[in-house]
Amino acid sequence: MERTPRILFVDDDADIVNAIKLGLERQGFRVEAFVRSRDALSSFEPDKFDLALLDIDMPELDGFQLAHKLIEIDGRLIVCFLTAFSGRFEEPFSLEFPKLSTDCFLRKPMTIAELSTAIHKLLKM
Predict the structure, then answer these.
(1) CA 57, CA 43: separation in Å to the nearest integer?
(2) Which residues pair with 32 in a beta bridge?
(3) What is the mean pLDDT of residues 57-69?
(4) pTM of the predicted structure, to 2 decimals
(5) How many Cα atoms within 13 Å fall on the side-chain side of residue 21?
């Protein structure tokens, strides 16, 4: 029996968090969602998630800072960034994460079906 993919989702917009969490759960994913990056970090444990979906532009810790900390805890974690700002973050991303592919950028807004398809591809399902 195949295990249900576990997703960590962090975005500082509560409406987006609620909509995406509910939508992904309806698609069969297990989702833990947070509106504060520090809350996500404090509850994070190694091997708990298959994928982290992180907004980039957040207070406290931005998505890049949060990703660094999550990867330090769990080096096998797949990290994907969500952004509404096309092209704005690719250069800082490539400097911050030279070993990660820019395929890990998903553009907001997107439908739950599009997001689900992207997650399946990232997790090679």
Answers:
(1) 20
(2) 8
(3) 90
(4) 0.86
(5) 15
